[in-house]
Amino acid sequence: RRQRQMCIRDRISEAERKQKDLQTAQSHYLKELKSNVKNFIQEVQEFRKVYEKKGPMVPGIEPKEAIERLRRFEDEYFVKERMYTINKSGEDLFGLPNQSYPELERTSAELKNLKRLYGLYLSLIHISEPTR
Question: What digits encode the pLDDT tens for the residues 24-45?
Fold first, then answer.
């Protein structure tokens, strides 16, 4: 009986140590998440500024150049979208409110519309080429 009580105490002690370890790890990951979200807010704002200055909607560029820029910004957007998903999952895990990124949402909508527009443009060019 005495041996059983010692075994139980050992298990309780081990469980308490593990709980402390998990709390320390949780604190570390929460700080890291908050730092990542803060940095990501700045990244998204910078991405939007560059998009507005050098993106596919800059007035006066040729359609071919706009299509190339669209592809480059789509690639970069997908990286940002992945980071958004990771951060959102972390916020959900820790019960934090989800950060909103209006610049990212606006850029997403514009990229989708531009992709459709230039897709139609390329289809028309392709259709009209044989008649030239």
Answer: 888 999 999 999 999 999 999 9
